[in-house]
Design goal:
heterodimer; A: mainly alpha; 18 helices; 2 strands; B: mainly alpha; 2 domains; three-stranded antiparallel β-sheet; two-stranded antiparallel ribbon; 10% strand; globular
Chain lengths: 576, 215
């Protein structure tokens, strides 16, 4: 396991070193400072403002910002739905796919606009190259940019000193995030991925090998913490993730923006220690989850041991639970990916999660149970974390008996109500929708595995969709694809499609509205000078409190559900 | 609101053209010029037709012949196959090594079906290798040989797996074992930058090299 922990450690050092650099760059982008790309990009930027008829200097209050965000997202769902429904008449459809059922299109459209990228379809057997490029990839960019924009609005609200309640201009933020951050990195990443062997062709299936423009999509899929694979088996497929190097490169792409944003935040609120405190909190929870999943996967599963397979490490074989994993990534590369893709809300997978050990499968669920606040999705992760920060400030204030203050701004009942909605709403819909799915007859047809793994499938599906993650215990409804004729990937369960689509939309936009309302309220507040009694929020003590708040809320909410699924699985050697 | 709807529509249309059409097409152009073979899928051609990809495992089996010398069929009329002993065998695949339809094996840690399938993989591996590696025990079989891969087309096997299969392939092909081992190390991908990932032997390339050797 030494080699395994060594590669994980080296990877962590690399992304920790890179995060403050990218974080600083992004802070300059959000505050309109000149960056090295300005001479190249500024003309295009000005051109886009003219086409959009946007005055970039026009500030919006939180309601206007939220309205613009909802309109662009809502129209995005509509456009993607239309593209998917009319797939049969588009160009770049070498395999002549039709549209499949409407409820699947609804699920997919909701999925990509909410940055979830849950997939009830198999890419290579369902979607034309046109749908992949003009439909899904566009939303890979835009949903990521929307998440970051909402975060930027919250940062401005917290940092505001003038009190006019303006949070910036949504269209301007969207444009700058796409042009200065997402596109440049995605272009470079595409070329690196192709150099490793990732496909990038408009040619269709050749021989019996399905192909398409994969690399351009793979790059933004990881960078935007989207996670929707071109192929059904996602980043485990050699055409999406061909080498050990590409595996770690994609991991870096996934983490680079979410891990850098705390540093951006530190710069924008004028205290880098705030950024480091939040980063450290995230890193601790991340490191624990990596260690647990790696040790669990290296141990192997009851089913393997009962079959007489030795999962020990010996010369020339790393051992462990290699079921549903790829040799070139090994247990370490697959375990690290499992943690990275679920602390961030990416949901791209390089292994079959249904085949994880019981304890190994608990880790992604716990990561999502923290409401994707540990690094989290681009933008969405840090704004969720900031809700937890406000909650910790409030709880800390109650403990010492003082009016809670955060960065000089009083946290009052109005904000605490909004924060509670933002932090708890997602958990609520997870539990309600899971309960509906497992207690009515409609949820049954989606379940593949017998025993507790079957419950884990259902619970994971709603946990993942509500938190906009998108990874899956893929037996859930996935098995139906096998026997369908024609458009094989498109057969699915209406109940699961519709419920899932609703879960994703609610889980994305209700917390976003709460966040923007908090931002608007904070933006109007006067700044009080730092007093002796003010609780510091840039110390290890506060980081410790924050970890406690996050773990406690997650545990209180989800422990009973965890017990029924992964915890039972990891305690028993009984087979089902 | 009306203003937002108009503006939002323009934003979506323009970004769809930029990010959904221009970006992938330009990237395809650059990829085709700089890494054409890789961008096309690292294809293997024989006599002008595509027979596979260097990155994908293939099914190296042959039809199972009955006592009458004809291929055996199951009840549905499918031809039964057995591993071709002159080739290295890739990891078990839940998809029949399909590069057209992919799906995960989805065998959970506590499923009886996982135990049964793992047992079958183990038994099949031992049955194939024991004649050439007498005394090979189940506990000596590396995990990659008895577990489904994630993609169904994992082209790599572990070094330990390759070392066991080498004895069979050398014997069946009447090649010196040392030569087969040499070919194995030529087709082994080490850890990236000496640190990242797990070493693996590319079965597709290795079998191609063996066929070259035979010519």
């Amino acid at each position: 396991m030494t080699e395994g922990f060594l590669q994980i450690a080296v990877f962590c050092v690399i992304f920790i070193a890179a995060a403050p650099l990218l974080g600083g760059y992004m802070a300059r982008v959000f505050t309109d400072e000149r960056v090295f790309l300005t001479p190249l990009v500024a003309p295009a930027e000005r051109g886009l403002y003219r086409v959009f008829r946007v005055d970039p200097e026009e500030g919006q209050d939180w309601k206007a910002y939220a309205r613009s965000m909802l309109v662009v997202s809502g129209l995005g769902v509509l456009l993607l739905f239309v593209i998917l429904r009319t797939q049969g008449i588009h160009p770049f459809n070498p395999s002549d796919f039709n549209s499949g059922p409407w409820d699947l299109s609804f699920n997919t459209a909701s999925s990509f606009v909410t940055n979830t990228n849950w997939q009830f379809y198999g890419g290579e057997t369902t979607l034309s190259n046109f749908s992949q490029m003009a439909g899904l990839a566009v939303q890979n960019f835009l949903s990521a940019a929307v998440g970051i924009a909402v975060l930027v609005a919250l940062m401005r609200g917290i940092a505001a000193r003038h009190g006019d309640g303006k949070l910036g201009n949504f269209y301007k933020d969207l444009t700058r995030i796409v042009l200065y951050i997402l596109v440049p990195i995605a272009v470079l990443a595409t070329i690196v991925l192709v150099s490793q062997g990732v496909l990038q062709t408009l040619g269709g299936t050749i021989g019996d090998i399905a192909r398409g423009p994969v690399a351009s999509q793979e790059a933004i899929k990881e960078l935007g913490t989207n996670g929707g694979g071109f192929f059904n088996v996602n980043s485990s497929y050699p055409f999406e993730n061909p080498t050990a190097f590409s595996n770690y490169f994609e991991l870096f792409l996934i983490l680079c923006i979410p891990a850098s944003l705390p540093f951006t935040y530190g710069r924008i609120v004028g205290s880098r220690r705030q950024g480091w405190t939040i980063f450290a909190t995230m890193f601790v929870l991340f490191a624990v989850s990596v260690a647990v999943v790696y040790v669990a996967e290296q141990h192997g599963t009851p089913a393997q041991h009962l079959a007489g397979l030795s999962t020990d490490h010996f010369s020339g074989s790393a051992g462990g639970n290699l079921e549903g994993k790829e040799q070139r990534f090994g247990i370490a590369g697959s375990s690290l990916w499992t943690a990275v893709t679920t602390v961030t809300s990416t949901g791209a997978v390089n292994a079959g999660f249904e085949s994880l050990t019981g304890l190994g499968g608990l880790v992604p669920m716990a990561n999502m149970g923290y409401s994707e606040s540990v690094f989290g999705g681009v933008g969405s992760g840090l704004y969720t974390m900031l809700l937890f920060v406000l909650l910790a400030v409030f709880i800390g204030g109650l403990m010492v008996g003082r009016t809670p203050e955060y960065l000089g701004k009083k946290i009052e009942p109005h904000e605490v109500k909004l924060v509670s909605i933002g932090a708890l709403f997602t958990a609520l819909i997870v539990l309600v929708f899971t309960a509906l799915a497992v207690s009515t007859k409609y949820g049954g047809p989606s379940i593949y595995a017998e025993g507790p793994n079957g419950f884990s499938e259902s619970f994971y599906a709603y946990l993942s969709q509500a938190n906009n993650n998108g990874s899956a215990f893929a037996g859930y409804t996935g098995f139906l694809q096998l026997n369908a004729p024609g458009n094989v990937g498109a057969l699915s369960v209406t109940f699961a499609n519709v419920m899932g689509g609703l879960t994703m939309l609610l889980g994305r936009f209700v917390p976003m509205l709460a966040v923007l309302a908090v931002a608007g309220s904070l933006a109007k507040k006067k700044v009080a000078p730092l007093g002796l009694g003010t609780m510091r929020t840039d110390t290890p003590t506060f980081a410790f409190l924050l970890v406690g708040v996050i773990v406690l809320i997650g545990a209180l909410t989800f422990l009973p559900a965890f017990l029924l699924g992964p915890i039972v699985q990891s305690l028993t050697t009984r087979l089902f | 609101m009306r203003k937002d709807l108009i503006r939002g529509s323009i934003v979506l249309v323009v970004f769809t053209l930029l990010l959904g059409v221009a970006y992938p097409l330009v990237m395809t152009g650059i990829a085709q010029v700089t890494f054409g073979d890789k961008a096309d899928g690292s294809l293997i051609r024989q006599n002008g037709t595509v027979v596979g990809s260097h990155l994908l495992a293939r099914d190296f089996s042959r039809p199972l012949l009955g006592t009458d010398g004809k291929p055996k069929q199951d009840a549905d009329g499918n031809v039964l196959t057995e591993p071709d002993p002159k080739y290295f065998q890739a990891r078990p695949s839940a998809t029949g090594y399909s590069a057209t339809v992919t799906y995960f094996p989805n065998r959970g840690p506590n499923q009886a079906s996982t135990r049964d399938l793992t047992r079958q993989h183990l038994a099949a591996y031992l049955a194939l290798e024991r004649p050439y590696s007498p005394g090979l025990k189940a506990s000596q079989v590396p995990v990659d040989a008895a577990t489904f891969s994630a993609s169904g087309v994992d082209p790599h096997i572990s070094k330990a797996n390759a070392a066991i299969q080498a004895r069979r392939v050398a014997a069946v092909r009447k090649l010196p074992l040392a030569r087969v081992q040499e070919l194995i190390s030529e087709n082994t991908a080490g850890r990236a930058l000496g640190i990242f990932g797990e070493p693996g032997v590319n079965v597709t390339d290795l079998n191609l090299a063996l066929d070259q050797e035979a010519r």
